[in-house]
Amino acid sequence: MRRVFLWAARNRWLRERLPRFRFMKRAVRRFMPGETLEDALAAALPLQAAGITSMYTRLGENLEHVAEADEVADHYVAAIDRIVAAGITGEISVKPTQLGLDLDPEICLAHLVRIAEHAAAVGSYLWIDMESSAYADATISLYERLRAIQPRTGICLQAYLRRTAADIERLRPLDPAIRLVKGAYDEKESIAYTNHRHIDANFVGLAVAFLIDGRERPIRLSLGTHDVALIEQIAEGVRGVGIARDGFEVAMLYGIRTDQQHRLAKAGYRVQALIAYGEYWYPWYMRRLAERPANVWFVMRQMLP
Ligand code: FDA
Description:
Elements: H1 2-10, H2 12-17, H3 22-28, H4 37-49, E1 53-58, H5 66-85, E2 90-94, H6 105-121, E3 126-128, H7 136-149, E4 153-158, H8 164-171, E5 177-181, H9 196-213, E6 220-224, H10 228-239, E7 249-253, H11 258-266, E8 270-277, H12 282-291, H13 295-303
Parallel strand pairs: 1-2, 1-8, 2-3, 3-4, 4-5, 5-6, 6-7, 7-8
The chain binds dihydroflavine-adenine dinucleotide.
């Protein structure tokens, strides 16, 4: 099932047709409050009142023209101001291919620097998403250059990739901010763990080692997962060296395990909800279905009158 949804995420024919159906639009609402930034900000307010901060991403990837990347960068710069004006403590997360990585890495870096400088000026932060493994080297190089210019920046790394331990070592001299996730793309066995138990073990091992090695350093670690058992295992693994529950962050997607987001925030964890918005939600939504095929029943229920 996972493979089928990940294939559907990449299929152009489906991408052009499925999002037009009303039942699909209704189904995606479960994980996305709406297509505009205003919808996302409205959804963040009650979360903020419950002590859950937010992070925003406008959905879109793999552009074809440089002008589209310029528009995306302009959008994010304006979005940062709108988040501040709404009285919300929020950060931004972007996909490098949404800022032109496929077209010209130098243009992509210039956009990242511009957005990061603007975020830092208002006390916010810029995160770089990690896309499929084909982009890993380019994304890490971009982050190294960006971080040297603007430190209030972080990168997402994927625990399913066998290379991630080495990537963390490579980034360690920068005292990086890392959002660790399991990984959402279809990767080959030769470069990625495909067994759940191996991925989980790598996730815990990488997180605990990064926190312990960096405990005297200005690092930042965000656990981008809904796997509460793993989060608690990591908290337990670092408690012995004096790292409390607020010594790292937990990031979950809007609409997924909301009850746990509230419970963890009340229990002293620093919880952040990633709120997606935008019109180009189809491949992102297919990846969410791939993570939990049981959600397909929810989509099917939306087909009923
Ligand atoms: P896992 O899939 O094992 O799920 C644990 C439990 O959470 C499940 O048992 C279920 O109860 C619940 N759950 C998980 N997904 C669900 C869903 N879709 N619907 C309902 N319940 C669900 N990936 C990537 O490759 N690059 C990136 O930049 C990012 N960025 C990112 C940011 C943030 C904040 C999050 C939370 C996730 C990402 N991801 C990502 C996605 C990540 O790689 C991964 O695919 C998902 O988080 C699902 O894996 P879990 O860690 O939640 O565990």
